[in-house]
Amino acid sequence: MFSSNPELRERGTQLFEQLFGGDAREAVTRDSEGLCPDFIDMTIEWAIGGITARPGLDIVTRELVVIASCVMLGHTVPQLRAHTQAALNAGATREQIIEAILQIKFYAGGAAVRNALVHVKDILNSSVQGPPDL
């Protein structure tokens, strides 16, 4: 059974909603329904409230690190897309996101980087005015 920390829960909830929007919690809860009812609470308190909300790195940098990590893993397309949108919501630029992905080409491999760019192309192109160029 999950034991809650009210301070981490509050901090995590505020940041989660800022990054992912108010409907995201319900979507994640629905995805894990019947499997692990505590999953979203653990994520919000431990991952968001306990780690992402820490001082030391600004939220844009943290989201760029998560994006690069998703590319490295190669099997986290939903999370890659969610954190790409979260990075934009936090104030990251399209260029910063592309550069964070490109930065790991020689570590993750060309195919992983290309696939990541393809998977987030629609999100990045919708974040700019004028014709898309990705």
From TrEMBL:
<dbReference type="InterPro" id="IPR003779">
    <property type="entry name" value="CMD-like"/>
</dbReference>
<keyword id="KW-0456">Lyase</keyword>
<dbReference type="InterPro" id="IPR052512">
    <property type="entry name" value="4CMD/NDH-1_regulator"/>
</dbReference>
<dbReference type="GO" id="GO:0047575">
    <property type="term" value="F:4-carboxymuconolactone decarboxylase activity"/>
</dbReference>
<dbReference type="GO" id="GO:0051920">
    <property type="term" value="F:peroxiredoxin activity"/>
</dbReference>
<feature type="domain" description="Carboxymuconolactone decarboxylase-like">
    <location>
        <begin position="50"/>
        <end position="117"/>
    </location>
</feature>
<protein>
    <submittedName>
        <fullName>4-carboxymuconolactone decarboxylase</fullName>
        <ecNumber>4.1.1.44</ecNumber>
    </submittedName>
</protein>
<dbReference type="Pfam" id="PF02627">
    <property type="entry name" value="CMD"/>
</dbReference>
<dbReference type="InterPro" id="IPR029032">
    <property type="entry name" value="AhpD-like"/>
</dbReference>
